[in-house]
Amino acid sequence: MKTITLNSKEYIAKEDVDKALKGTKVDPTQIQIVVLQRGWVAIGRFQQKKEQCHLTSAFIIRSWGTTKGLGELANEGQKTNTKLDKCADLHFHELTIVMRMDVVEDKWADVIV
User: Fold this and answer.
1) Nearest Cα to 41, choosing from 61, 58, 64?
2) CATH number, residue 76
């Protein structure tokens, strides 16, 4: 592995990092929080076929109800002050996604069925 030390910090060549990571794959959770353009935030079972994305068993997250942001919802599940609006399945183009967030599925399994 090629390295270089600069200002007492050791750096690894990008090619070596890419080689070490080759073949590793992080599978996203099935249940995802999706932030879409125009401020829409939704949760549901995420699927993507080419550029078309789908959220089934979907809810719009109208109010997070958290003190530590959206990550708190993802990690801990629905809070007392969280407002979820059940909706029909959502269909949207991949380019409208601002961010997707994995959730701890056990925390959402009773809500997203």
Assistant:
1) 61
2) 2.30.30.100
